[in-house]
């Protein structure tokens, strides 16, 4: 059987091309750090399997200093446990809880190097991106998830 490649070589995702950064508790790459308890919230989990990327930490995540521990985050963790047997790492497209501040592409772009560091360390075989900005952080473009 013949195969016709769509690309000469597989295009790299923004996570693969971004220069990874280690977390910085003094980060000033965007304005989201103002008023948060956990500046540059670290990823959580065991590398080598699934990477779950949300949009941004909730106020519960911020207070506890751990991703996906609020009400909706706990629900996501339960669902993942039901359908996935391997290791999982949980992370966000942006590192700081946004509170009442608007979130936009600039904040996602500012935090992408931190997500690239998680991607490098987690070595995922699969990625689940939850939300428009999470998808943008991973693939570098916006999508309309409800269409």
Structural class: alpha/beta
Q: What strand line-up does the widest sheet have?
A: 1-3-2-4
Specify the helix fraction band.
25-40%
Order of helices and strands: HEEHHEHEH
Low-confidence stretches: none
Radius of gyration: 16 Å
Strand runs, count? 4
Number of helices: 5
The shape is globular
Distance between the termini: 34 Å
Strand content: 5-15%
Rounded average pLDDT: 89
What does the largest sheet look like? 4 strands, mixed
Which short descriptors sum up this protein?
147 residues; alpha/beta; four-stranded mixed beta sheet; 33% helix; globular
Brief overview, please?
33% of the residues lie in helices and 11% in strands. The protein contains 5 helices and 4 strands. A 4-stranded mixed β-sheet has the order 1-3-2-4.
């Amino acid at each position: 059987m013949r195969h016709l490649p769509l690309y000469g070589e597989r295009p790299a995702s923004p996570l693969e091309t971004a220069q990874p950064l280690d977390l910085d508790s003094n980060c000033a790459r965007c304005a989201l750090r103002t008023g948060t308890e956990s500046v540059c919230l670290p990823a959580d989990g065991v590398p080598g399997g699934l990477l779950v990327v949300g949009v941004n930490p909730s106020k519960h995540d911020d207070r506890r200093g751990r991703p996906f521990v609020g009400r909706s985050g706990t629900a996501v963790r339960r669902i993942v446990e039901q359908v996935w047997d391997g290791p999982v790492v949980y992370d966000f497209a942006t590192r700081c809880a946004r509170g009442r501040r608007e979130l936009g592409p600039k904040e996602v772009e500012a935090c992408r190097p931190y997500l690239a560091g998680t991607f490098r360390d987690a070595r995922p075989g699969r990625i689940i991106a939850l939300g428009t900005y999470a998808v943008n952080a991973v693939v570098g473009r916006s999508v309309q998830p409800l269409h």
